[in-house]
Amino acid sequence: MKKVIKFSAPWCMPCKALAPVFDKIKEIYKDTEGKFEDVNVESDINGLAELFKIRSVPTVVYVNGDAEVTRLVGLTNKKDYMEHIDTLLNLEVV
Question: Is pLDDT at 93 greater than 80 in this prediction?
């Protein structure tokens, strides 16, 4: 499964700025095979932040199967996030 995981925290101002952008991106890709997840690092009961060794927020991790493909750390522009998603969606599932 191909996933895009956004790690954030409620106190993080760049995370708050990314939230509406990420919502728009999820809407654009809603009919694709990609799955989107939002993870609050302060209430991460599944341990994903530890699994992916998240050290700063916001961080967006692109995953193919169980393998991390790439990540973007910090706030960037919508185009960068979408280019990474396009690359992820064009990969063979591992």
Answer: no
CB 60 within 8 A of CB 29: no
| Whether residue 12 lies in the annotated active site | yes
Report in angstroms the alpha-carbon separations of 42 from 9, 71, 87: 6, 20, 29
pTM over 0.90: yes
Catalytic residue among 4, 5, 12, 25: 12
Q: How far apart are CA 79 and CA 85, in angstroms?
A: 10
The single-letter DSSP state of residue 42 is G
One of 4, 9, 15, 61 is an active-site residue; which one?
A: 15
Q: What is the pLDDT of residues 39-71, one digit of tens each?
A: 999 999 889 999 999 999 999 999 999 899 999
Q: Has 15 been annotated as catalytic? A: yes
